[in-house]
Amino acid sequence: MMINKNSPLPIYYQIEEHIKDLIDRKQLKPGDCLPSEREFAEQYQVSRMTIRQAITNLVNSGYVYRIKGKGTFVADQNVIELKLHGITSFTENIQALGMTPSSKIIEFRSSLADKSVATKLKINENESVYEIQRIRLANQIPMALETSFLSMNIVKNLSKETAAHSLYEYIQKALGLSLKYSTQTIEASAANKIESELLGIKKGSPILLMERITFLSDDQPIEFTKSIYRGDRYKFVVKIDQDS
Ligand code: 16G
Predict the structure, then answer these.
(1) Which residue in 20, 66, 119, 141 has its CB near the most CB atoms, within 10 A?
(2) How buried is residue 74: exposed, middle or buried, by Cβ count under 10 Å (0-12/13-18/19+)?
(3) Does residue 166's CB lie within 6 angstroms of at least one atom of ligand 1?
(4) For residue 1, is pLDDT > 80?
(5) Measured in angstroms, how far is the CA atom of residue 192 from the centroid of ligand 1?
(6) Is 72's C-beta closer than 6 angstroms to any atom of ligand 1?
(7) Which numbered atom of ligand 1 lies nearest the CA of 229?
(8) Ligand 1 and 168: CB distance under 6 A
């Protein structure tokens, strides 16, 4: 690659863009080790300081990561494209993409619904609910953090093991209930300290906050879930009909 020293674009930026391009075109693949600063400096005929600046920017934007004493590696760029039609579970979505879903339970307890949860689930305040917080992983990589509330009057005998597997499977197969429709909101935010630690991302990274209420056919809500999806891993696809 030719560096244009007369360009108004800083040299570190030109190098950064070139490396990004190699990653996007899969000439550098996830897990590949980047050449050392010295090798890069020779290749581009620039100082090691300039290379360091370019690499630091690539680390900050998630393209590559450093392992102390080992080197700099290309990060996994897999972005999941998720269709927002049909009530599918995390488990189904990940399996459909040929990956292995798993969950890490952070919280599994019964609690009393506060006003907000009670309104969402159309139950009385202080009625018992399951409160479940799970890290959702695909091929062992944390993708989302979900906090679900389910009325204990409707969803009975839920175990921690079942919650670690699939809530929708339990609701539909074991309880024989059919999920009719969901309402869902999506908004952008930035990961706070706890969220970033649980999801293995940097504090302040972009995240998508989603709230879903899923209803049974008699319009009774069965779950209220607050989800935090990694902004660097998800892209949502919506089908828009002309006449809806
Ligand atoms: C999805 C739903 C979530 C539901 C979960 C069930 C969104 C934003 N959220 O992640 O509301 O609780 O699936 O998944 O789509 P599970 O059956 O694998 O437990």
Answers:
(1) 20
(2) buried
(3) yes
(4) no
(5) 22
(6) no
(7) 8
(8) yes
Instruction: Give residue 106's region: left, alpha or beta (phi > 0; psi -120 to 50).
Output: alpha
Angle CA(209)–CA(212)–CA(213) in degrees, nearest 5? 155
222 lines ligand 1 (CB under 6 A): no
Q: What is the DSSP string of the chain?
A: ----TTSSS-HHHHHHHHHHHHHHTTSS-TTPBPPPHHHHHHHHTS-HHHHHHHHHHHHHTTSEEEETTTEEEEPP---EEEE-SS---HHHHHHHTT--EEEEEEEEEEEE--HHHHHHHT--TT-EEEEEEEEEEETTEEEEEEEEEEETTTS-S--HHHHHH-HHHIIIIIS---EEEEEEEEEEEE--HHHHHHHTS-TT-EEEEEEEEEEETTS-EEEEEEEEEETTTEEEE----TT-
**Parallel/antiparallel/unpaired status of strands 71-74 and 221-230:** unpaired
Look at the chain and count its residues. Answer: 244
Residues 178-204 pLDDT 10s: 999 999 999 999 999 999 999 988 899
pTM of the model: 0.76
Q: Name the residue with tokens 């935010």.
A: 189
- pLDDT tens readout for residues 17-36: 999 889 888 899 888 999 99
How do residues 150-173 score in pLDDT, each as one tens digit? 999 999 999 999 999 999 999 999
Q: Whose CA is nearest to atom 5 of ligand 1?
A: 89
